[in-house]
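Hi P.,

Sorry for the delay on this. The queue was packed all week, but I finally got your sequence through. Input first:
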Amino acid sequence: MLRSKKNYVRAAILFIVAIIAFSCSEEQKKQLPPPDVKVVEVVQKDITNKVDFVGEVYGFQDISIRARVSGFLDGIHFKEGSHVKKGQLLYSIDPQPFEAEVAAQQSTLAEAKSVYAKAQSDLKRYKPLAETNAVSQADLDGAQLQFEAAEAKVEAAKANLEIAQIKLGYAKIYSPIDGVIGKSLAKVGEVVGQAPLIVLNTVSNMEDIHVEFFLPENQYLRTAQILRASPELIKESEEHDGLLELVLADGSVHGYKGSINFIDRGVNSTTGTILIQTTFKNPDGLIRPGQYAKVRIPVNYNNAIIIPQKCVKELQGQYSVFSVNAENKVETRQIEVGTKVGDMWIVTKGLNAGEKVLIEGLQKVRNGVTVSPEVIEFKSQFESL
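Then the structure:
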């Protein structure tokens, strides 16, 4: 009984000591100064973001050179990789088979003309005789039919001769445009013009170049909104130099700006992408077909609300920040974000210019805590901010 009483007294003492210690701890907590945090002011300003799209370069005109008749290639009349003029002889095919065909058709035409002349003479002789009943009407009709048949044979022979002459003309292949010609894919002595029809070469006009790229459907919708808001990005005339930049493989920027000049009529149902074509001047011929480059499109945002990316917390697609009110209390604020611009977010909903949001010390605070904020200026690494 006495031991039980002693245990009771001991437990009571320990309980009282614990209450006193807890009270002291709470008092100390109340006396702790508010945590120091760093905040930035929400900024509203006009900014320009530059969006890059990887594309492939094409000449303004890329004309494939093919043989239109079959035969042995007997001449290459240009220097590979050189500039060629429109109408300049490029290739020649052995003409002998085509010359022989022309000669044969000329002979056929001469024969047809001879038959035609006889039929015409017979018809002229039969007509007055038929009027005096010296020959029957059947004989006259027969002479008329022979004349018409001979006339048709002459026309057919002329057409066949013309076809043979055209084929003979195809034995010489000329440049269709001024431009730069590439490496020949056929050699002298090879048979060309047979199926499958191979491309002998390509001539490219590179004074202007096209750069084509493909956009996924969702990205196209966003880009279409940009173009609708900035019609100056689309080429309207030959004098309009455009606003687009071309970033080359070595990181340098092409010296001429360009414009969008073509958007395909529809989205490719297989790839889910749409073709965009841009045009850039290239008078020095620096850019060549087949290169890959980035088309840089400037996008303007007027009166955009921006904050540093490091201020924003993201959880399952939901974005939030810690804002500090006039009483220096922390509030959790749900926001909606738009586009990333360098190291900043464009905020479309949830914040106003001049409000303060935490940028450092986010782990120290929770909703409703009083803090000691220090306003700092965030130095963006993005050149347009």
